Amino acid sequence: MLDKTKKIPALPDAKLDVRAYEAFLIHEARLLDEGFFDDWVALFTDDARYWVPIEAGQADPFETVSLMYDDRRLLETRVRRLSDPRIYSQEPRSRTSRTVNNVTIEPSTGEPGVIVRSKFVLVEYRREDQRLFAGTYFHRLVGEGNAMRIAMKKVELVNCDAPLDGLVVPF
Amino acid sequence: MKTSLDDMVDRAPDGELEIAGGVFKHTYDGNWKLYLENLCDAAHPWYTHRSSIAAAQQQKDDVFSDGTGEIAIRQMRQNGAPYSFWENQVGIWTYANGHSYLGDYHDDSKLVAALNDPTFREYHSAMETKKGKAETQRIMEVRRWNSNFYPNMSMMSQFQQLRVIHPISVNKTVVHTYCFKLKGAPDQMFRNTVSFANVVNGTGSLVLTDDLEIYNRIALGLSSEGAEWLEIGRGFTSDEPDPHGGRKGKNSTSEVYIRNMFDAWRGYMFGDSGSGAKKQVA
């Protein structure tokens, strides 16, 4: 059933230049597609979190399980594992292709940085099987010196509550 | 097996469990039996989970964690106990009708009830207030890893996890996993349960994904015509009777629990009680 209580999204903030954020997201997607996972982690702040909820509209990652929920420490371990030769779930490696679009800047939540919302499509091919994922990214991006960093990345999959085979490559 | 079910409830200070925290649903292209065969297998973590063990061992502990990563990394490191430990110090017990349980292998103070952890201290005192000192001690000394209720359920009483196995077809399985909140326990206990579920039962877990991969590979291997028989013989000559009426492995890595499940399966298929079940009492 449609949720009639939902508020209509606010119009994007025209004062901020969305293109700089879009360029960042495209760069991030490329790092993931091309397997530069260590460089991907380097985009995150020291206290960053990475979250893939398992329920639509999931309120938090603490009272409900998540497909992935990593603080910085677990994110580093997740990525280190990806380069271990004995990661059997990546033997053979997945090939992925991501498209990021519909980039908008969302109203501030009061936390530092800018919330950038985007749509993504991710195709994963591995061992004669192709999987399709799609959904919404929310990035909270903060400036560190001249660089842009990810303080929070939330990935809302349209099929988050479907039965799924293992998810190994980050979204 | 009753002791495993009791243990699930005994650990709640108020004597009640609440199902909470959402449901993982994972699937693989393989037979449902493979899942149960893995859950009481003490031989595989050292090999199958090598990548997450190594990654967790190399992780610096001074990097930011809100508690989630800490629990997960501790669990992965525990999987890295030496093979001799898995073989000698865990324990595998089997009972009629295909049931079995694997003993626990945790000695990490964050993962098992240890009084130097503030959350556990609070929990322990809630337990003592409600159940008394002696009963609390008895409950804390019940140490189980997975208890398999053949043919479709497995639980971890000590860590408040339950899985239900749904066979979809001969080579397709869906598993639903659930968490329980211990009524009367500190709120932080349930947060730890959620973090623990993410690492042991999560679809995107650094650990479970290698298990799912192996189920898929076994199914792929079985679809070839190269081998007519599967050998499930580890420990066969050394299994011994258990005082409670079942059989146990001399080593914890014995496949006695798989042979036990096939005995029950044979019983269901032929309509008798299975050759193994006849020899065993309750």
UniProtKB/TrEMBL annotation, chain A:
> Mind telling me which residue stretches traverse the membrane in this protein?
none
Q: Which InterPro entries match?
A: NTF2-like_dom_sf, Rng_hydr_dOase-bsu
Which keywords, in A-to-Z order, does the entry hold? Oxidoreductase
Keyword Signal assigned: no
Which family does the entry's similarity section mention? Belongs to the bacterial ring-hydroxylating dioxygenase beta subunit family.
A Pfam family recorded for this sequence? Ring_hydroxyl_B
Which molecular function GO terms apply here?
oxidoreductase activity
Give the organism, scientific name. Answer: Pseudolabrys taiwanensis
**Which Gene3D superfamilies does the UniProt record give?**
3.10.450.50
Biological processes annotated in GO: 3-phenylpropionate catabolic process
Source domain of life: Bacteria
Identification of the protein by name: Aromatic-ring-hydroxylating dioxygenase subunit beta
Record flagged with keyword Oxidoreductase = yes
